[in-house]
Write a structure and sequence with these properties.
Length: about 290
């Protein structure tokens, strides 16, 4: 009986010691499990430390070397930042103290916008690093066999079709007037029937390179936000879902290997990017771990 009482008396201290041990291990467990989850342990492992928790990213320099290096350089304070009013350049850890300024629940969390960095932004915008052929965009037809649009294009209206497909095609074919269109309508129809997703995007101004492999914009991917072709700066997003309609238009630089639950938590509250919100998640820092 006395042995049982002694064990019961020891139980609280044992539980406390065990909990402290587990808590201590938890500090390192995320980084350790993140490294184990990496495709290649030689790739950069980045930690985004936020007010909601930690997110670990594996970057892919072999797929997007310039944009990956720029992201790391911005995080580590190695890229010149231009102060907008004075034009003075200096270096600082660009992302520290910024926020996820745009959140669409279930879709995307976005951060790094120069509009929300009072210290300025890098002067240089980088080209896209996307291999459309590797992604299979050269084999995907814009029109399905039944005449509907390929779902990857995310065309939901006549206006979308005119803006994203027809107008760029007319420009390429040098069709400037209704008379030109009437005279060449059969040629336009043939072009549409033969049009691939890759060519449609090229008509919009995107340029592709076969130099490296690429991957789709899927759940957990981190990619560069942009305002069109070859306009990659410091702004990035993490996709909360498979988003095929972004594939071929955004340079993928990495993926979440640990902390996707934190990304989902950040993504649970809608944040309008047109104005500052105190509900937005703060980015304390982004740094390289390995």
């Amino acid at each position: 009986m006395s042995r049982i009482l002694n064990l019961l008396n020891l139980a609280p201290s044992l539980l406390l010691a065990l909990s402290l041990t587990l808590a201590s291990n938890a500090v390192f467990a995320d980084a350790a499990s993140a490294q184990l989850a990496m495709e290649d342990s030689q790739n950069p492992l980045m930690l985004i430390n936020t007010s909601q928790g930690e997110v670990y990213l594996e970057l892919f320099p072999g797929e997007a070397p310039l944009n990956t290096a720029n992201f790391i350089g911005l995080a580590e304070g190695e890229v010149d930042i231009i102060e907008p009013e004075s034009g003075i350049s200096f270096t600082r850890r660009y992302f520290n103290g910024m926020r996820f300024h745009r959140v669409v629940p279930g879709f995307v969390i976005q951060g790094g916008s120069p509009a929300y960095n009072p210290f300025g932004a890098p002067a240089e915008l980088l080209a896209d690093e996307i291999n459309a052929d590797y992604l299979g965009l050269d084999t995907l037809a814009v029109l399905n066999a039944d005449g509907s649009f390929n779902e990857m294009l995310n065309i939901s209206s006549k206006q979308d079709f005119e803006t994203e497909i027809l107008k760029p095609l007319y420009l390429k074919m040098r069709i400037d007037t209704p008379a030109d269109l009437l005279a060449r309508q059969n040629e336009v129809l043939t072009q549409l029937q033969q049009l691939t997703v890759k060519t449609a995007y090229e008509n919009q101004g995107y340029r592709y390179s076969p130099a490296n492999s690429s991957r789709k914009v899927s759940r957990g991917v981190i990619a560069m936000a942009n305002s069109g072709p070859d306009s990659n700066g410091p702004e990035f997003f993490i996709s909360l879902e498979d988003a095929d309609w972004l594939t071929g238009k955004h340079t993928v630089i990495g993926k979440v290997v640990e902390g996707m639950d934190v990304a989902d938590t950040i993504g649970a509250t809608a944040i309008d990017d047109s104005e500052f919100s105190r509900l937005s998640t703060m980015i304390y820092s982004i740094r390289r771990v390995n």
